[in-house]
Write a structure and sequence with these properties.
Rossmann fold, 317 residues, binds ribose-5-phosphate, single chain
Length: 317
């Protein structure tokens, strides 16, 4: 694949393995940059390649440590802007703070909007993101956003699995549209679990719409954080007579007791993507499978660079 020297891809420190795979797909080297800390803890970044007049992409997932990765991304964008890059795209495979996207009670911030403002102010001309929790988040940015979805790789994986008697389940009301899209593509019935969030890590699956007796299940969500949502839904599905339960999720955060919960839950396989790097602990869990979004991201970057359509990537999923 021929790509001009005009294209530069830089890596923040959140997900270097994904950046390497993206660059491998594009057959270009990762852009040279040094990320260090001053003795007082402040970060300092120096871009080592000449970026004047170049089309630059900086890839950073704002996963844990969230604030550290976020500030690093902002500094990186500022650095490229001041080095006279022609166009800067913030590639954010996982966008932390996405779930704080509305005032659902008094005296709380809308941090997703604040973060979008910060990214724009720091110097991004465009954003390339994957499954932003809610599609409306694209509108939080006043710059173009190319919004990809992990459904591209997850859908292919589950289609090849040829699961029979399939019912697609949304583990909460908010994800209904995702489950419906999978049902359209893979064929199968649709069911929805009604969940109640008790706290940041506790979730209760109360009721469901749909009959899952004797059915194999694919449960789809955008994020697994503490795994409370998918595990409580899986227990309810089992109570209602479901057979094998599979889970397909884009962002695997696996916070707090998530891995223990998943190990105990009646779930055959949990499939996530590598938008967030996989910890050694997670790699040891046999039922967790990681699929890569590198080719999808690489293809999107190539198309943005060449001013070609990105949405057509999703025509045949
Ligand atoms: C909620 O709206 C999201 O789509 C996920 O269902 C949720 O963030 C998962 O969190 P946890 O794994 O902690 O239940």
């Amino acid at each position: 694949m021929f790509l001009s020297d005009n294209l530069k891809i830089f890596s923040g420190s959140s997900n270097p393995a994904l950046v390497s795979s993206v660059c491998k797909y594009l057959e270009i080297p990762v852009g040279g940059a040094k990320i260090n800390r001053f003795p007082d803890g402040e970060k300092v970044i120096r871009v080592e390649d000449d970026v004047r007049g170049r089309d630059c992409f900086v890839l950073q997932s704002t996963c844990e440590p969230v604030d550290d990765h976020l500030v690093e991304l902002l500094i990186f964008l500022d650095c490229l802007r001041r080095a006279s890059a022609k166009r800067i795209t913030a590639v954010i495979p996982y966008f932390g703070y996405a779930r704080q996207d509305r005032k659902d009670e008094g005296r709380v911030p809308i941090t997703a909007k604040l973060v979008a403002n910060l990214i724009t102010t720091a110097g991004a001309d465009r954003v390339l993101a994957i499954d932003l929790h809610a599609k409306q988040l694209q509108g939080f940015f006043d710059i173009p956003v190319d919004h990809l979805t992990g459904e591209l790789v997850l859908n292919k994986y589950f289609r090849n699995k040829k699961i029979n008697n399939l019912t697609l389940v949304s583990p909460d009301v908010g994800n209904m549209k995702i489950a419906a899209r999978y049902a359209d593509r893979l064929g199968g019935d649709l069911a929805i679990v009604y969940k109640k969030r008790v706290s940041g890590s506790e979730v209760e699956a109360h009721e469901m719409i749909g009959d899952v007796k004797g059915r194999n299940i694919l449960m789809c969500d955008d994020i697994i954080a503490t795994a409370g949502t998918v595990c409580s839904a899986a227990n309810l599905l089992k109570e209602r007579g479901a057979e094998k339960i599979y889970v397909g999720v884009t962002h695997g955060i696996f916070a707090l007791q998530a891995l223990e919960r998943l190990a105990e839950a009646p779930i055959e396989e949990v499939v996530v993507t590598d938008t967030i790097p996989t910890s050694e602990q997670t790699k040891k869990v046999d039922s967790i499978k990681i699929l890569s979004v590198a080719a999808m991201l690489g293809e999107a970057i190539k198309r943005i660079h060449r001013n070609e359509s990105v949405s057509s990537l999703f025509n045949n999923i």
